[in-house]
Structure formats: structure tokens, C-alpha cells
Give the backbone structure.
Amino acid sequence: MDSTSRITDLESAVNECSYTTLPDHHTPSEDSSSVNGFKPLKSFAYTFSIVLFICSTVLVLVGDHQRSEILYSILPPISKITPSVVVPSRGVSEGVSEKSNANNLFAASNPFPWTNNMLSWQRTSYHFQPQRNWMNDPNGPLYYKGWYHFFYQYNPEGAVWGNIVWGHAVSKDLIHWQYLPIAMVPDKWYDSNGVWTGSATILPDGSLVMLYTGSTNESVQVQNVAYPADPNDPLLVEWVKYENNPVLLPPPGIGSKDFRDPTTAWRTPNGNWKITIGSRLNTTLGMAVVYETPDFINYKLKEGLLHAVPGTGMWECVDLYPVSTVDENGLDTSVNGPHVKHVLKASLDDDKKDYYALGVYDEAKDVWTPDNPEIDVGIGLKYDYGHFYASKTFYDQHKERRILWGWIGETDSERADVEKGWSSVQAVPREVTFDKKTKTNLIQWPVEEVEDLRLSSKKFEDVKVETGSVLHLDVDTATQVDITAEFEIDEKALEGVMEADVGYNCTTSGGAAGRGALGPFGLLVLADGSRTEQTAIYFYIAKGVDGNLNTFFCTDQSRSSKASDVNKQIYGSTVPVLKGEKLSMRLLVDHSIVEAFAQGGRTCITSRVYPTEAIYGASRVFLFNNATGVSVTAKKVKIWEMNSAFLHPYHFSAASVSHVTSLYVLAMILFSGLINMFIF
């Protein structure tokens, strides 16, 4: 079937309805009991009218703040007044796989008896998450008229995947967020199975266009366009879908469920725009195609492929953006030229990891070439070696930086998520730059604004940690902290280690308990006093047969919880350490999430942790050294208690509230009038 026929068939799917004709006239019986039956209704109408009049008067007379509070309390929540489309549960073939498929290994036959106290503790305090329910991919982040905007895949009906709409929140600083009404819902044939992931592009005149994937009523993945209903509205509350959507169907040779997640567009020298979209061929060849458009409505598929890597499977949430090799500032997506590298990133549907590579983008040929084919997309570097997926960057023109968002799903059981009423958080936004020292990788670092949440701190200096020892660091609270640490090993001790350690791997070498001559050593967080629960973040140095040192950075969750139905993986990878550098790490601990950054952000690991005892005031922090051949000195360890971010619904202006009030009062008066007309 060609694309024109497919659209025609989809649009012509109309349900026929039959109606029952009512009699033209009905004469009530003169029976007195029938007439008297209206008396209770008359009494109700009188009473309702009086109560309505009093309520309306109160709404008109009270102050704006009180009026808004009254309205928020009596009107139904946003999720209940937004149209919802109930869709069946999906799997890998539908796109971003739902948790019930991805986490079946945690559906223990004997689930842990979580208490409300434990589940309440798991909610984060300075990471973005909705007030309730399910969230996944970040969508269309941008800075617009003084506000940072964050859209996200959201289920307004529950804590599992389904009914996907675009949630929306705004912030002045990327940390404190205000929830806005749902931006887009699946109300058209071309997105009736979900308003899926998309990207924003800001045009030279300041206007805005949003491209997103819709899953049609036949589960075909198509690309659609949406615009702000009011471009002058800095909050971008209302959105309008292009009347002739979809603008793109899967091209010939591409599966109907293998064509999703359009990128932010970049401008070409001739004034047109280009985007790339992820896909695959023959189930295993991961790839990205390029389209050119003059107006975001009409598109031409470019010959060839932007890039492809055999054996990597479906590429989703593809991202292509420039980074400067000489300046610290980020670059607009359309920049190319000298001293510029292009990052190509793909989220691999097969293993749920985000891979990236550095390379060169040829504008004339629309081809991206990796600097090092041995660490190409999908087989080399990852944004994050823990639990981090479906990420998306945007250029922050306000502060001239490139910002990375990433979805951090739950790794407990779906049953626990339903019980606590929410699922998933977003990583703290990260600034992304080119590593000018190594020249082979990116640097990711939490945005500077998160440091404004730092409260009191404690510093520990020159703490010697002998082999096989664990030292408690006395801090008041340890469930919501920002930790920086620097470690030093004596050079003579390093040189004195003779045996080679060539087989080390974070995941398979025993974690923090697997002892070697030069590691592991680091920090234990979210640990109880007896360390029956602990999460270890550590370095391990392995000497090769040639005498060179390889440094690993790992997170060990194997003892993170006594619960049986949670993920207890060990994550990690190597991290470049240059001559003269101390080993350094930074940890953002926020209840059930730990984000770890090594060597200034060269290697990152995010983990979800669900302790049962190391919660609230029982949580502790320790230094440890499980190496057999060297003692370690913690040169500087600083631990800040972190304040909570302010996340709440946006309270609209007095004028907006007054307008809503007027409409509400008018509607109630008309409703009352209709009742009185019917009764009398």
C-alpha cells in the first residue's frame, strides 16, 4: 500500500451511529401524585440557586489569591479534564518499551513488603518529576521568552506506561519547576496511540515549531508539526497541531514501527532546514536518515544515510549537535566549521543505553563520520554507564551552553510503583562540553544552578584510609547531599605493585568486595550504621602487562537493599586519568537516585537505589579502601546538605484567574437557569 492510500484509509475510518427518535410531545398525567412528584425538584432548584448565588458572590468578592485557591480546590485536576485515549499495553515493537516488559526480572514471586514510610522516602527532592503517575522521555526542551520549558512523555492516568500525552513545566533556573496544563493529547487519528517524542526548533525570527512522532490508529509511526497557539505567550500553554498532519510517513524500506523521534532542525547555507530521524534496517542495522525542508511542512528525503552501524538495532531519540573544540561556550545546533566537532548520539532500543561518538558532519553530503570507528555509535562511549536513557539536548541561548536531559526510570517492581503512585525522574540537567584535555570524549557536569541548593557543609581533609578499612564520615543528614571527593595514591606504592591485573571489569569482577592490589576504594552512600545496606561508588586501578594503568569508575548496588524485587546491578567503565591528576568524584544523592561523575564528568553513572533501612536519619556516608596493596588518602571530601527544589503547579495571573472565575460563574448561573426552566 502506498503512503497516499494509507492516509486515505486512515482518514476514512468513521464509525456510524444510530439514534432513537423521541416522541414529539408528551402530556403529563393529571394524577395528583405525578404532579406532586415535582415538589422535591422545586425545592432542590430553589436551594441550588441560592447556594450557587452565594458561591458566585464569594468568588467575585474575595481577593485574587483566595479566589485562585478556591478554584484550584473545586475544579477537577488537569489529568481528569484532559481528554484521554486508553491504549493497550505495548512492548518493544511499539517504541520505548514499557516497564512491565523491561523489568520482569524484578517481578519477584515473593515481593518485598514495602511500607508507606519506605515508599514515601523514595520520592526525590531536587530532581524533576511530576506530582504523580508515569513519566518517560524528555521532549522539546528549550528556553523561550525568559522561561526554560520542559515537556515530557506522561501518563495522566497511572504509574505505568499508557495514555501518553505531553506533560509540561516551566522554570527560571532548571531546578525549581512549575507544572502547567498538559500541552498535547492524542486526539487525532495520526497520534491516537500516543503523542510521542519530539524536538523544538527556534527560527531566526524567534518563532517556534515543534516536530513530534505520533502513533496512528494503525500504530504507524508518523511525524507531525505543532505550533504555539499564542507565540506571545511566554508560558506556551496552548498548542495547535498542523491541520494537514502528518508531514512525514515511513519511507520505502522502513518498517511502520521503526521511524521515530525527529531531532531539532539545523539551518543549511541555502536557508533550508534539515532534521534526522532514527530507524533500522533488517532489525540489526541501526541508522539515521536526513530530511530537508524549507518550511517544516514539505520534506525531501536526502540520498544515503547520515550514519549507520551494523549490529546496533533500532536507533531512537537520535541527537546531532556541534561542540566547540576551543571555547567553553555551547553552540547553536546550526553551527559548523573550523574548531567544531559533531556529536552523534542514539538511544539503542535493544539494550536501553545512550551511546555517543565524536566526529565530523559533512553538510554537502549529509554524512557524519566518526573520529574513531572503533568507538562508533552503539559500540563505544555512553553518556552514562548506569540507568539513563532517551536523552535529549538543547542549546540554551540565554547562557550559551548545551544542556542535556535524561530519563531515569525505576528499577524496582511495577507493583511498587503502582503502590507509591509514581514512576521515573529526570536526571539533574547537565552541561555538555568537549574535553579539551583528552580530546576523545565529552564532559558532562550538573548545571551550576543546582549548587544554589547547597546548605550547610562538612569538610574532611587528608584522611588516610588503610587497606581493608572503612571510616564513618560524621554528617547530620545523608539522604539528600552533594559530595565532592579527591583521592591520592602514593606514586611509589603504585610503582611497587608488580603483578598485572588484566581482566578487571566493573560488572563481573565482584564489585566493591572484589579485592585487588590497587582497588577498590571510594565512598559508601545510603548505608545504614551496620552497612547491611550500602551503595558503593569507587575507583579501581588495574595495571596492564605493559605496566600502564587503567582506571575504572564503578557503582555497586549489590548490597543497596534488602528487598528482593529491585535491581542490584554493578555499573561502570574506564575513565581517562591524565598525568598529574588526582582521582576525583562528585555524587548527587537524592533519596532513591545517585548520580556519580568521575574526573570532572568524563565518566558518569546513574543508579536507582531502594534501601529499606538506610533511609531518613538512618542513612550514613563512609570512606572505604578494599585494596590489598596500597593505602589511600582522601585529600578533600566535602559534603553539602541539599535543600529541596520548589516544584508546584503554576498559579496563573490575577487576570487569568479572574477570566476563569467569570467563565465558571457564568456557566453555573446558566446551568441554574436551565434547571429552573426545566422544573418550572
Observations:
- Residues 1-41, 58-105 have pLDDT under 50 and may be disordered.
- Residues 654-679 form the longest helix (26 residues).
